[in-house]
Amino acid sequence: MPFTIAIIGRPNVGKSTLFNRLVGKKLAIVDDQPGVTRDRRVGEGHLGDLDFAVIDTAGLEDTFDDSLESRMREQTEAAVKEADVALLVIDGREGVTPLDEHFARRLRKGKTPILLIANKSETRASEINAAEAYRLGLGDPIPISAEHGQGLSLLYDALRPIAEKAGAALTDDEFADAALEPLPDDAAEAPKHLQMAIIGRPNVGKSTLVNNLLGRERLLTGPEAGITRDSIAIDWSWKGTPIRLIDTAGLRRRSKVVDKVERLSSADTDRALTYAHVAVLVLDANDMLEKQDLTIARHIVEEGRALVIAANKWDAVENKTEAMKKLRDRIDYSLPQVKGVPVVTLSAMTGRNLDKLMDTVLKMYGLWNKRVPTARLNRWLEGTIQAHPPPLVAGKRIKIRYMTQIKTRPPTFALFAQKGEDLPDAYHRYLMNGIRETFDLEGVPLRLYLRKSENPFDKKD
Questions:
Q1: Binding site, annotated residues for GTP
Q2: 343-345 and 278-284: which strand pairing?
Q3: pLDDT in tens, 261-290
Q4: Hey, what domains does the chain have and what are their CATH numbers?
Q5: Which residues are annotated as a binding site?
Q6: What percent of the chain is modeled with pLDDT above 90?
Q7: Which of 42-51, 172-181, 187-196 has the lowest average pLDDT?
Q8: In angstroms, rounded to a whole number, what is the distance separating the alpha carbons of residues 242 and 403?
């Protein structure tokens, strides 16, 4: 991107709505209640012939303690320092507030150029209120309506000279945030990067894990549960492998979710999982694999994503051998459909075993993309049927003809047989377990579809 824009302002003035308008997608969660945005989110913005990186930030807060609001303010200040221009957004319907005046004074002391945006300026009354903004000392207010797309030509005129002055100044591509890409049907159309989602219950250390992987405080963390609300996708690389790292909001049981913003966050997490390749399910080692963890794990498997379980805060576990045995037994009993799913013990706070986690992620990604040659698959099938023939159905044995792998991501197979629809579930599982063990696909979701084999001697109309 040729230059970077930060969107700032007090809570609930429409910053995320303007962000979504500029990137052309509903990436940021938008709601009427203030304080929805907490982490800063970066997207690729477009306005006319201008291309830029745009940063959505939390509302400016006047707090300087150890609170969540103070940490949100630090994130916003970091965004302003990174940007070539900051858009200070005020509410054109309410007019200038004392808080707007306070932040305008602070921003004028910085080196980053400031453009004053009077949002929600759809009516004549709001235009009059916007005129009050001259007293902020930031030049002419630009009246717009982010929700309705009005006034964007005025914003373009103000941004154009800044873009020309910025020239080829680029953001840090290694850590630039990104939109999520849909998955292709096969590895031949695979995106150039691995999309890795960090998923789990609230307050298990997901954002801390992401920050330690990146080597910087990119995301808000703290003792409060549910800090993360948006799914934040960050382009990154690990030992030369391009990775899109996706931090997600914590998932609680649906019966406990009553807040509208939390419902939107859960839906955003589900969307992130849909676009992921590998999902890292983060557990709290002091309270591992409770019912909600299992629900999340099953959802990951049902979506066909490669699963890696990360037992976080492992340094706090006293009897590690007993805890690992209990965890492994619970996984094997509750997730038989992904027998052999890998477990990595780590500490997101100290960085212990992060290398092992990423090596495991790359291994599972490779297995998720694995293709078994048809000839080898059918040699195995022939030996398997001889060792354990399919059962009789109505006095006749089911005739299995052949098998082929029809796609990867996850590995998916088709079995052609006469009366294949009558194949018992137990024999279906027998074949699935054989494929998993023989072709080293342990821990990866598999699909096995039954296809009817046509009898050439059947009479046809």
A1: 9-16, 56-60, 119-122, 200-207, 247-251, 312-315
A2: unpaired
A3: 445 556 666 777 888 899 999 999 888 788
A4: 4-171 (3.40.50.300), 187-368 (3.40.50.300), 374-452 (3.30.300.20)
A5: 9-16, 56-60, 119-122, 200-207, 247-251, 312-315
A6: 34
A7: 172-181
A8: 34
